[in-house]
Fold this protein.
Amino acid sequence: MTTTNTAPAAEPVTELEEHFNRTIQRDQRIEPRDWMPEGYRKTLIRQIAQHAHSEIIGMQPEGNWITRAPSLRRKAILLAKVQDEAGHGLYLYSAAETLGADRGELTERLLAGKQKYSSIFNYPTLTFADVGVIGWLVDGAAICNQVPLCRSSYGPYARAMIRICKEESFHQRQGYELLMTMMRGTEEQRRMVQDAVNRWWWPSLMMFGPPDDQSKHTAQSMAWKIKRHTNDELRQKFVDMTVPQAEALGVTLPDPELKWNPERGHYDFGQIDWDEFQRVISGNGPCNAQRIAARKRAHEEGAWVREAAAAYARKQRERQQRQEAAA
Amino acid sequence: MSSAGKASEQATTEKVRHEWPLYEVFVRSKRGLNHVHVGSLHAADDEMALRHARDLYTRRNEGVSIWVVKAEHIAASSPDEKDPFFAPSADKVYRHPTFYDIPENVPHM
Ligand SMILES: [Fe+2]
Ligand SMILES: [Fe+2]
């Protein structure tokens, strides 16, 4: 990690590179047509694509409940939320394309298992309480991750993140409100909420990625200001934010070691099962195969629509050309 | 699926990708303001690009008017500040109001 991830300034640099480094140091944004090191471009494409795929795959766990939402109000909210996630995916694919990536190609790489998406979406949504807990914890963790990315050094990525963060607040609040409603309900509803919290808590903590001493990309990404905080810093921030929310809701977070540490000024928490994380991220979580199969099916079943639209556009274009030629 | 079927499907994907051009999207957020670039999308034609832009970029009243332009039709200078294209504006300080000293007792200036 020390040899491969040296800060760009430490290497012999060309004039272009020096200009790039100065722009980053002055906290200015890199824009699409600027010269940038190949590593910077590759790192960004990998991170943005992974992020875009997560938004797109992330529609499935909640989409699972749209037809079974308990009221029209909840159904309308859930539809709007899932539609937002599709939008987030598209903002991010759009940002990746400014780096020379091709959206169609990125989708193919996702379907071929060559690019990853967040491990969190490989867990099943067993009850409607899961919809609330995803909004509260999963979107909550996403907000923690994404707010600092609004200042990421790559302009189009930072701007996409600003747009996304504006919408995430609705996602988290609708989830929390849903849970508050269930907690005011029957004993069985309260049990459902607690059960969902038990299942989603640890996977939510894993969303921040491996611990800092095992994170391959963190040092270089921070030098380039693509990332602004380490995985562990963000995870701690999320825990500190969430504990009082859990208390207000009346649920218990499933970690006996979770305790306020007055010396650190933070909550201590238990050991995360990184073996589980590795298992899920490498394709062997409870729903990996199902998620990719559903995405593949949607892509293939939509092929005729894409072709028909292209054929229609071609026909219109040709007709117009004929008319212009005749005139 | 047969390997021939797979190959033809891939060829179709290939074709579709090239036939859905990239559009840049500009949104006027309210009357009195300029259209501002907000991002891009792919669409088969102009009309579809507008519809998609509406759904993608203005789900919450973000705009009162949308422009879509095929990305290939945009001519751009390099935004890099090293580029001489923008150099003349830096040395014409007299274009900025702060260049001129106006006495304090002159109001509304
Ligand atoms: Fe999202
Ligand atoms: Fe979200």
